[in-house]
Amino acid sequence: MRLQQLEYFVEVVRCKSMSQAAKNLFITQPALSVAIKDFEKTIGVQLIKRSNKGVVPTTLGKQIFNDSQEIINIYKGWPNASGSGDICGDVYIFAIPSICNSILFNESFFNLKKMYPKLNIFLDQVRPHELLSHIIKNYPSIGIGYYLPSERESLFSQAKMYGLKTELLFKDEFNILISNKNPLAQKDKLSLSDLKKLPLSYYSDTNDNISLPYQMYFDDSFRFRLNSKENIMELIVHNKAVALYPEKASRYEYCIRSNLVRPMSVENFRFPQVEFFILYPAKKTSSIGLMKVVDNIKENLSDF
Amino acid sequence: MRLQQLEYFVEVVRCKSMSQAAKNLFITQPALSVAIKDFEKTIGVQLIKRSNKGVVPTTLGKQIFNDSQEIINIYKGWPNASGSGDICGDVYIFAIPSICNSILFNESFFNLKKMYPKLNIFLDQVRPHELLSHIIKNYPSIGIGYYLPSERESLFSQAKMYGLKTELLFKDEFNILISNKNPLAQKDKLSLSDLKKLPLSYYSDTNDNISLPYQMYFDDSFRFRLNSKENIMELIVHNKAVALYPEKASRYEYCIRSNLVRPMSVENFRFPQVEFFILYPAKKTSSIGLMKVVDNIKENLSDF
DNA sequence: CGCCCTTACGTCCAGCGTAAATATA
DNA sequence: TATATTTACGCTGGACGTAAGGGCG
């Protein structure tokens, strides 16, 4: 017998309806029907009477309804029990640079910390090619990154091998970040020939597989290989270079919000489309704290 | 989270030892170790400190130990909860004639009824070839019968198809039941030629695949095909015929206990060896009452 | 080395979703 | 037919057993 079944039963009695309770519990109605039936089977007696109008508890059903509420009240007080109890523990998040601001800019992310003061949340910025290894080394932890559509299958299967679940958050498109000081920033769109006047900055790791292939389109008389987003942004703001960044994910960058730089696309030309994903332990035994953070991020970044 | 995990945790704290608790809980020590670890993971905090001397609860562990006991006390009062609460419901047992007395003769079988007065137990005597169909028609129910070793695989796989679990109870050997009035009963063993003087009685169903093949060894000038054990026993007691019966399973027959008839073997000759089995629903959601009866029978009839 | 607990891995069952069936007004 | 519940079935994950691994006296 699972504690969850008690919660299911309580919700069914409260709603006087299987279908309504199923909605509230975020499971399908047949699944709930079976769960309640199994619950009755282990208890050994009928707990609710079914009809096409809904359900009503039997005499004993009411008794067990009360007991169940009492039990739920006890364990909801436990740390990390699915109530809002005393959720605690350490949660590690590894995210690629472009998405970090989007996470941090979101007020509800900080509400997590207010809601669960004992929950320690650590956000580490890592380069895309390091993401998976960080997640695995620091299991259990959460990862946020992107993949090119062609990398999708290999990422999903690799993650699965390590007991990780991968979920798509949103699709994004790379664009050029350019300083508003640059006269070209006045245009609606850049042309391919404009690019030749612009030096491209990119990450110093040799696996920057987004920017590297496009180097040839830019002014290749300069070479800026830097190892932090801050360095790169600094360069862009001072109009010494441009960079390729995912558009949606970067929308909360300070330089963009304050109009120091702007994202621009190129006429008749598309930079890579990518899909942002979240990676987290597939096991249901993951700490509730971790799952709260996962749910929060998914809520904030889905359909971004 | 399962209610069982609370019981596991409570037992571990009580024993101050994983291995001892595992013994009391009838699971292996590694299984318990994992269960407790999962419990801690969902709660989010360490509940016990491990050492090579055993385990001790942490501060929070003690708190949750108390809460768990409280929760267990609540649901142990429910009908069929694994406490000795108010176990109720109907339990149907189908057993072949030869084993019925062994079940009924056992005092502990009747203690079941004393312990759980609301549990209705129905015992039906059925012929071996009808056993499976009765079990299926009356699902969930319990069956007790025997098979020839050659029938073993087919029975097990067929039962599995119907969601039934089959367990060996004990091995038995068929022997001749003969009236003590008969002078041959004075001998130590019968000879094959003695059999020719003895008419064989057997069940009137055409599927009596134990007795039928041996008909030729007996006095075949008589043919007694009867449809109840009482009729057959009556015949044997009055020395009008003999019959083939499994020896161990029949030991509680009144006629045998009171020395009216005795089982005899034949020199240099063996009647079929059979294996008695119990059949019951494989699902863990079976009513606790049914499982109590299954456990009782297994306890009484294993290594008979 | 022995005791106690953990990790690894394979097997089997339970939980849930999808789709289809059933019941009642 | 419309609404509510049940049944059927496939997939995935969890529970437990067996066997092997590690820490501490």
Describe the structure using short key phrases.
304 residues; homodimer; 3 domains; 22% strand; transcription (chains A, B)
Task: Describe the protein.
The structure is a homodimer of 304-residue chains. Chain A is an alpha/beta fold. Chain A folds into 3 domains: 75 residues, Arc Repressor Mutant, subunit A; 115 residues, D-Maltodextrin-Binding Protein, domain 2; 100 residues, 3-Layer(aba) Sandwich (D-Maltodextrin-Binding Protein, domain 2). In chain A, 39% of the residues lie in helices and 22% in strands. Chain A is built from 12 helices and 11 strands. In chain A, strands 3, 4, 5, 6, 9, 10 and 11 form a 7-stranded mixed β-sheet that branches. In chain A, helix 1 packs across helix 2 and helix 1 packs across helix 3. The first copy, chain A, is elongated, with a radius of gyration of 25 Å. The two termini of chain A are 40 Å apart. The mean pLDDT of chain A is 87. The structure holds a DNA duplex (25 and 25 nucleotides). Chains A, B: This is Hydrogen peroxide-inducible genes activator.
Task: Give the averaged pLDDT of chain A, no decimals.
Answer: 87
Radius of gyration of chain A: 25 Å
What is the CATH third-level topology name of the largest domain in chain A? Answer: D-Maltodextrin-Binding Protein, domain 2
Shape of chain A: elongated
